[in-house]
Predict the structure of ETS homologous factor.
Amino acid sequence: MSVTPSTTLDSQLTANWSPTHSYPDVPMLTGSYTSRLWHRDSQPQFWSKYQVWEWLQQVMDMNQIDASSIPFQNFDMDGHQLCSLSYQDFIHAAGSVGSILFQSITELKWSGQYHMELGQLDLKPESNFSCSFADISYPPGDIYDPLIPPLAPVASPTPSSPDIKRSFSRQVKKHNPRGTHLWEFIRDVLLNPERNPGLIKWEDRTEGVFRFLKSEAVALLWGKKKNNSSMTYEKLSRAMRYYYKREILERVDGRRLVYKFGRNARGWRESDM
DNA sequence: GAACGCTTTCCTGCTT
DNA sequence: TAAGCAGGAAAGCGTT
């Protein structure tokens, strides 16, 4: 089964999704990050089928959703067809996960247009689009919260290509067998300040130095993500200190609540985007 | 089931 | 005095 596009993405965004149904507080951590990951292929309209599968894999990975949670055969299409799917099409194709996929592809599609329209201007899309997409409207009941555990699969997990599914599952597990790591969580909060105002801030963006503004609030957020209501900053900071040995973080002497990304931390530099 | 990696929990001592 | 930092030790948990 594959989904037949009913309306275009553009018409969904401009006509059907009025501001009266906006949810400004919808966290966009994962979507924005996904957009950055796919920055190099910023025009999903031109993706091959294989690239669509890669995108699916990346989105599922970033959201810690089991690879078998969506029916892959519903996305047996190229980028052009993918971009033609409406929000309802995504829901129909992937159930609750569809809203996450739609959010991601919407960002990517807009990011690609942004590049094309601005032409030679050397602007980074994430600097503006994270805010722009905060205004995207979501139908009531389909608010995406990355802190809420992944939803149960809606459709039967019967991929059309066993090879692709095997590859999919293997890569997800190899990449991040235990889900999001603490340092990645911290990084994502830092990279999306408009979604988490006043929790952590950059002290020196180019050097990777950052400071906790609300240490206990960050700990609670981390605890919520890990389903651990007893998480405290003291425990979180102990885990942070273990990153020193692995050079994911570096010590910043003499400054409280200040950390610095190390050589083994990835994805925080502007040049990584 | 063992080994391993990552995180959590508890602790003591030190610094700010 | 409180809060935060540093790091040892042990345990829990999931993956391989």
Q: What stands out?
A: Residues 177-178, 181-182, 226, 228, 230-231, 234-236, 238-239, 242, 254, 256 of chain A lie near DNA strand B (CB under 10 Å from a C1'). The beta strands of chain A are 200-204, 209-212, 249-250, 258-261. Residues 182-272 of chain A form a domain with the Arc Repressor Mutant, subunit A fold (CATH 1.10.10.10).
